[in-house]
């Protein structure tokens, strides 16, 4: 048997980038041999094994035939007679279809190195279509390597469009899609991920509520970029530039979906878009099976981002309600993430990227002022239960009044 390094490790070494994990392909071996050598099988009928010591993935060289939809829809032909070239040709991108032997020799039958130098993400063969998840993968790689100058080959974008239009993306499981979406949002150019999906028609299949924002105008005074879709892309870009965590990026992606519901005769105004968007955000969260911290923050940012922008004008009682709504006394971090999302929203506007956002410090200061109100004196005065809560609220309101006055 021969073992080759494949995939991301080969690609990233040639790019001079750090290597996060190594994938291997094994040619000329059977599953039985692998088991005898102590490799652990990953799944019952999946020709992938984990190395007994390193835990790295070793896949038997295979050709893949599609038999139906979704995960269960794969059948594999993995046998000792499958060659390295046969295995590589069914991989997603040429830059991912290079192998390296144990002498460090590059095996590159599909010109991955050439595409790497030309900064092109190109599919290897029509076998690309065997796994529609690759549409998301390509968009994710585009988001990761955009700063190096990479873009998607025209013919690959066309194939992605065919896949999107065939309805295949609807059969992806939420788990697989979320893994790609969440990873892509954390890349240096999450906006490129969304843009590439849109360019091939996949955004309309995956996140139609976001796709609908393109072509919807906003008032130029607040949004020099005018287009709501463009605004969302800018906000995502700000998120990456400010190293925001996943939940802030997810909330940013969804914060304005309500604007897609505004009747055209009301454009460019979007009255109550925060409230109107909530049912969309909830539906997206459920459909995508977004983890709780992402889902929750997206709902809160959707509902309250305008409050964030108006922080300095809010009455102390409204401020207190906002803080209570965020349960800021127990969950200060989530409130800080909300404030961060508001700031990204404010900066994700054409020409306003460097603006100050005094609302941010103001809101965090208000939360702190309210949090500082001590409970002990109230307990000592004998307050209990609901009465204690009310007394605490009165004190907090006083603290917020003093904070606003100073
Ligand atoms: N749907 C998929 C998933 C994986 N692969 C192939 O399997 C390799 C390893 O997959 P993975 O680890 O998911 O991606 P990497 O390219 O290694 O990228 P990353 O840096 O994200 O690990 C890829 O390079 C690619 O050759 C593929 O063709 N189609
Ligand atoms: Mg990998």
UniProtKB/TrEMBL annotation:
<dbReference type="GO" id="GO:0042245">
    <property type="term" value="P:RNA repair"/>
</dbReference>
<dbReference type="Pfam" id="PF01743">
    <property type="entry name" value="PolyA_pol"/>
</dbReference>
<dbReference type="InterPro" id="IPR050124">
    <property type="entry name" value="tRNA_CCA-adding_enzyme"/>
</dbReference>
<comment type="similarity">
    <text>Belongs to the tRNA nucleotidyltransferase/poly(A) polymerase family. Bacterial CCA-adding enzyme type 1 subfamily.</text>
</comment>
<dbReference type="Pfam" id="PF01966">
    <property type="entry name" value="HD"/>
</dbReference>
<dbReference type="InterPro" id="IPR003607">
    <property type="entry name" value="HD/PDEase_dom"/>
</dbReference>
<dbReference type="GO" id="GO:0001680">
    <property type="term" value="P:tRNA 3'-terminal CCA addition"/>
</dbReference>
<feature type="binding site">
    <location>
        <position position="8"/>
    </location>
    <ligand>
        <name>CTP</name>
    </ligand>
</feature>
<keyword id="KW-0694">RNA-binding</keyword>
<feature type="binding site">
    <location>
        <position position="11"/>
    </location>
    <ligand>
        <name>CTP</name>
    </ligand>
</feature>
<feature type="binding site">
    <location>
        <position position="21"/>
    </location>
    <ligand>
        <name>Mg(2+)</name>
    </ligand>
</feature>
<keyword id="KW-0067">ATP-binding</keyword>
<dbReference type="GO" id="GO:0000049">
    <property type="term" value="F:tRNA binding"/>
</dbReference>
<feature type="binding site">
    <location>
        <position position="11"/>
    </location>
    <ligand>
        <name>ATP</name>
    </ligand>
</feature>
<keyword id="KW-0378">Hydrolase</keyword>
<dbReference type="InterPro" id="IPR012006">
    <property type="entry name" value="CCA_bact"/>
</dbReference>
<dbReference type="InterPro" id="IPR006674">
    <property type="entry name" value="HD_domain"/>
</dbReference>
<protein>
    <recommendedName>
        <fullName>Multifunctional CCA protein</fullName>
        <ecNumber>2.7.7.72</ecNumber>
        <ecNumber>3.1.3.-</ecNumber>
        <ecNumber>3.1.4.-</ecNumber>
    </recommendedName>
</protein>
<feature type="binding site">
    <location>
        <position position="140"/>
    </location>
    <ligand>
        <name>ATP</name>
    </ligand>
</feature>
<feature type="binding site">
    <location>
        <position position="91"/>
    </location>
    <ligand>
        <name>CTP</name>
    </ligand>
</feature>
<feature type="binding site">
    <location>
        <position position="137"/>
    </location>
    <ligand>
        <name>CTP</name>
    </ligand>
</feature>
<dbReference type="GO" id="GO:0016791">
    <property type="term" value="F:phosphatase activity"/>
</dbReference>
<feature type="binding site">
    <location>
        <position position="140"/>
    </location>
    <ligand>
        <name>CTP</name>
    </ligand>
</feature>
<feature type="binding site">
    <location>
        <position position="91"/>
    </location>
    <ligand>
        <name>ATP</name>
    </ligand>
</feature>
<keyword id="KW-0819">tRNA processing</keyword>
<comment type="subunit">
    <text>Monomer. Can also form homodimers and oligomers.</text>
</comment>
<keyword id="KW-0511">Multifunctional enzyme</keyword>
<dbReference type="GO" id="GO:0004810">
    <property type="term" value="F:CCA tRNA nucleotidyltransferase activity"/>
</dbReference>
<dbReference type="Pfam" id="PF12627">
    <property type="entry name" value="PolyA_pol_RNAbd"/>
</dbReference>
<dbReference type="InterPro" id="IPR043519">
    <property type="entry name" value="NT_sf"/>
</dbReference>
<feature type="binding site">
    <location>
        <position position="137"/>
    </location>
    <ligand>
        <name>ATP</name>
    </ligand>
</feature>
<dbReference type="GO" id="GO:0000287">
    <property type="term" value="F:magnesium ion binding"/>
</dbReference>
<feature type="binding site">
    <location>
        <position position="8"/>
    </location>
    <ligand>
        <name>ATP</name>
    </ligand>
</feature>
<keyword id="KW-0808">Transferase</keyword>
<dbReference type="InterPro" id="IPR002646">
    <property type="entry name" value="PolA_pol_head_dom"/>
</dbReference>
<dbReference type="GO" id="GO:0160016">
    <property type="term" value="F:CCACCA tRNA nucleotidyltransferase activity"/>
</dbReference>
<keyword id="KW-0547">Nucleotide-binding</keyword>
<dbReference type="GO" id="GO:0005524">
    <property type="term" value="F:ATP binding"/>
</dbReference>
<keyword id="KW-0533">Nickel</keyword>
<dbReference type="InterPro" id="IPR032828">
    <property type="entry name" value="PolyA_RNA-bd"/>
</dbReference>
<keyword id="KW-0548">Nucleotidyltransferase</keyword>
<dbReference type="GO" id="GO:0004112">
    <property type="term" value="F:cyclic-nucleotide phosphodiesterase activity"/>
</dbReference>
């Amino acid at each position: 048997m021969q073992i080759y390094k494949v995939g991301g490790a080969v690609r990233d070494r040639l790019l001079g980038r750090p290597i996060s994990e190594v994938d291997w392909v094994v040619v000329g071996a059977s599953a039985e041999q692998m088991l005898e050598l102590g490799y652990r099988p990953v799944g019952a009928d999946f020709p992938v094994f984990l190395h007994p010591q390193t835990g790295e993935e070793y896949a038997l060289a295979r050709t893949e035939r599609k038999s139906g939809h979704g995960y269960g829809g794969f059948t594999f032909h993995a046998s000792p007679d499958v060659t390295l070239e046969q295995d590589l040709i069914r991989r997603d991108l040429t830059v991912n279809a290079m192998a390296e032997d144990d002498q460090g020799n590059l095996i590159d039958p599909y010109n991955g190195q050439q595409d790497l130098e030309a900064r092109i993400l190109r599919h290897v063969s029509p076998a690309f279509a065997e796994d529609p998840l690759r549409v998301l993968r390509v968009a994710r790689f585009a988001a990761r390597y955009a700063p190096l100058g990479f873009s998607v080959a025209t013919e690959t974008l066309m194939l992605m469009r065919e896949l999107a239009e065939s309805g295949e993306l609807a059969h992806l499981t939420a788990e697989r899609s979320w893994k790609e979406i969440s990873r892509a949002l954390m890349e240096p150019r999450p906006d490129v991920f969304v843009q590439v999906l849109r360019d091939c028609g996949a955004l309309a299949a995956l996140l139609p509520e976001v796709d609908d924002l393109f072509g919807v105008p906003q008032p130029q005074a607040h949004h020099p970029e005018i287009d709501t879709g463009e605004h969302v892309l800018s906000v995502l870009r700000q998120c990456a530039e400010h190293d925001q965590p996943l939940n802030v990026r997810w909330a940013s992606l969804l914060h304005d979906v309500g604007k897609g519901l505004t009747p055209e005769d009301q454009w460019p105004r979007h009255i109550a878009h925060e409230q109107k968007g909530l049912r969309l955000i909830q539906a997206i969260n459920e459909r995508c099976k977004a983890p709780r911290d992402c889902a929750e923050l997206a709902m809160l940012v959707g509902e309250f981002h305008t409050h964030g922008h108006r922080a300095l004008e809010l009455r102390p009682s409204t401020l207190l309600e906002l803080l209570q709504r965020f349960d800021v006394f127990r969950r200060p971090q989530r409130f800080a993430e909300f404030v961060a999302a508001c700031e990204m929203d404010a900066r994700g506007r054409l020409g306003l990227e460097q603006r100050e956002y005094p609302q941010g410090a103001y809101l965090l200061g208000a939360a702190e002022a309210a949090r500082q109100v001590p409970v002990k004196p109230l307990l000592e005065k004998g307050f209990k239960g609901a009465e204690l809560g009310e007394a605490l609220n009165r004190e907090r309101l006083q603290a917020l009044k003093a904070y606003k006055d100073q």
